[in-house]
Amino acid sequence: xxxxxxxxxxxxxxxxxxxxxxxxxxxxxxxxxxxxxxxxxxxxxxxxxxxxxxxxxxxxxxxxxxxxxxxxxxxxxxxxxxxxxxxxxxxxxxxxxxxxxxxxxxxxxxxxxxxxxxxxxxxxxxxxxxxxxxxxxxxxxxxxxxxxxxxxxxxxxxxxxxxxxxxxxxxxxxxxxxxxxxxxxxxxxxxxxxxxxxxxxxxxxxxxxxxxxxxxxxxxxxxxxxxxxxxxxxxxxxxxxxxxxxxxxxxxxxxxxxxxxxxxxxxxxxxxxxxxxxxxxxxxxxxxxxxxxxxxxxxxxxxxxxxxxxxxxxxxxxxxxxxxxxxxxxxxxxxxxxxxxxxxxxxxxxxxxxxxx
Length: 357
Prior knowledge:
This protein is an alpha/beta fold. It is built from 12 helices and 15 strands. Helix 2 packs parallel to helix 3, helix 7 runs parallel beside helix 8 and helix 8 packs parallel to helix 9. InterPro entries: Dihydropteroate_synth-like_sf, IspG_bac, IspG_bac-typ, IspG_C, IspG_TIM, NO2/SO3_Rdtase_4Fe4S_sf. One of its GO terms (molecular function) is 4-hydroxy-3-methylbut-2-enyl-diphosphate synthase activity (flavodoxin).
């Protein structure tokens, strides 16, 4: 797969675009004024694998509180601002690493220049966030009176030109819609018209199951096209769940460079173990591992090791016992009750040996 070539920006210490890995972003459910809760959640997101966290900044108190939040976490923070350019200036003074702000929505060109002048010395990136549900009236009128992929791209290009006229190029772009085909078409279209990094997401995707499927379809399709530099899975759930799903999407698309990936077979008549809870237990125990690993949980001793030949480690259940294998080679036979423990023992031993190298 060939990645789309983009210019590179930095949000704090995280490189975006160019040859940098695709990064995961989420959003705090707390405003910065709730300092203790916001910091706790941001650090939980980081522990789950989140690279960048965005916070809503609805007023000046929130913008000023960012300074205290920033002092208590190493995670790059993005201030989400609408309409009032002065909040962007305050957020920059508070040490924020990035802004999510649409230049066309903060008033005159003079206001845009004030934000750019403040952001330029620190090269603080601005994300232009286009949402299909909030396109300006003149765009809607030009494209049939309703949201379209073409209208989203036209809106993005308008905002891009505003920043370019201010001689500022530290930006990334998002084109979000709850309609997956529209979102995919918009990103594919814009990808051919600029070289700025793209932030992918299906907005208002829904609850965990529905939102995960929609996000996997939209974000995954674009990643397989080589499009996308940061991603956010938007779920009506604890944002830690967003990070978990985002990691799974990156892993499934072949992008992930860290973490354990579990593969497991569907149950069938040959399965002689209670595979579903066994797979769930293994997946839970793998959550804290950041080393790239492929781990298989198979229900058939006869075919399991062969079918999961590319797995680094795996187990295959039988009648009262099962086998522990590595790279398709059987290591030993153990009792069914001990399969998961023995698998994790083998993995942890490998990880300990890797640390010594």
